[in-house]
Amino acid sequence: MSADYSRELEFALRAVSHASELCCSVNGKISPDVLEKSDKSPVTIADFGSQALVSRILEEAFPDDPIIGEEDASELKQPDQMNFLNAIHAEMAVLGLHPTSEQIFHWIDRCSQKEYCDRFWTLDPIDGTKGFLRKGQYAISLALIVNGEVTVAAVGCPNLGSTVDDVPESIQGEVFSAIRGQGATARPIASLRNPESIKVSSRTATSEMVLCESVESGHSSHSHSAQVAERLQISADPVRLDSQAKYCVVARGEADIYLRLPTRPGYQEKIWDHAGGVLVVEEAGGTVTDVTGKPLDFRQGSELSNNRGVVVSNGACHDQIIEALKAVGVS
Ligand SMILES: Nc1ncnc2c1ncn2[C@@H]1O[C@H](COP(=O)(O)O)[C@@H](OP(=O)(O)O)[C@H]1O
Ligand SMILES: [Mg+2]
Ligand SMILES: [Mg+2]
Ligand SMILES: [Mg+2]
């Protein structure tokens, strides 16, 4: 008999919904506090707050499960970051939580696991921090990996309305979720009620397809994707979106292709940037591989070190994309 993951999904949804409340509160402010990480990427009080909240809920429900998450609390512990830490306390208080600073550090640092094991969660507390800062798309992405397979996923997209052009005014976005083998659903992130089944598009003619990619050309090569689009005779302009919202729009059939093409040698994709989105797309009937057509390997710790780039599609055109990538010299 296969294992029942309904409890895992229930807590994952609750954790993502709770974290999205904090993210929306911070996102509503004119300009949230931002720190620069050692790799020069931005991190906000919402990234830390979201990671702490999800970690807290998982610790209570599944105390033995390790978590591989994006953030750690080392910056926050610096004496010159007191204002930043106080801002996190203030956001938690809005949600009725009054933890000590030590508790916040503990929750965040519980997600600092790096090693692969048979069962673990991976968390991106805000995927698309740059999108969050420009009040565009971002996602809270949580996934459970069992024996190397993404098994449960909940990807909250607080700024994603019923279409990509329709940005909701308050917390009205959707959370996309899946249990392996049971299909994918979308439901309102605020209520978590009335899940609706989602499916990838049934389009087969590549000339009619919609391709999406990162807003940031530093995260995915826009010039290579334009060459692929030309080969596939795609006429529509690419839709540029931050975060795993791209996986979600492919999963619900609004777009047909999501390309993430390497911009520089040496960058390894991180598991938290993909795990949740991968399961949602696969369970909606789509296909996810790297640029060579290999499945993503989630057994390598925090990085997808056996893969290069990511190709997501409705399935119908996947082989054609892989061929086109070879023809334009990406693989
Ligand atoms: N050179 C690079 N190539 C691919 N992805 C990169 C990258 N540098 C940073 N990223 C990742 O791109 C993610 C955002 O993706 P997107 O462009 O699709 O919104 C970032 O997640 P965070 O925002 O969680 O840090 C970060 O992990
Ligand atoms: Mg990310
Ligand atoms: Mg992030
Ligand atoms: Mg980041």
Automatic annotation (TrEMBL):
Gene designation per UniProt: suhB_1
Keywords (A to Z) from UniProt: Hydrolase, Magnesium, Metal-binding
Molecular-function annotations in GO: 3'(2'),5'-bisphosphate nucleotidase activity; metal ion binding
Superkingdom per UniProt: Bacteria
GO biological process: phosphatidylinositol phosphate biosynthetic process; sulfate assimilation
Binding locations of Mg(2+): 70, 124, 126-127, 273
The protein, known as: 3'(2'),5'-bisphosphate nucleotidase
Entry similarity comment: Belongs to the inositol monophosphatase superfamily.
Catalytic reactions on record: adenosine 2',5'-bisphosphate + H2O = AMP + phosphate; 3'-phosphoadenylyl sulfate + H2O = adenosine 5'-phosphosulfate + phosphate; adenosine 3',5'-bisphosphate + H2O = AMP + phosphate
Pfam families assigned: Inositol_P
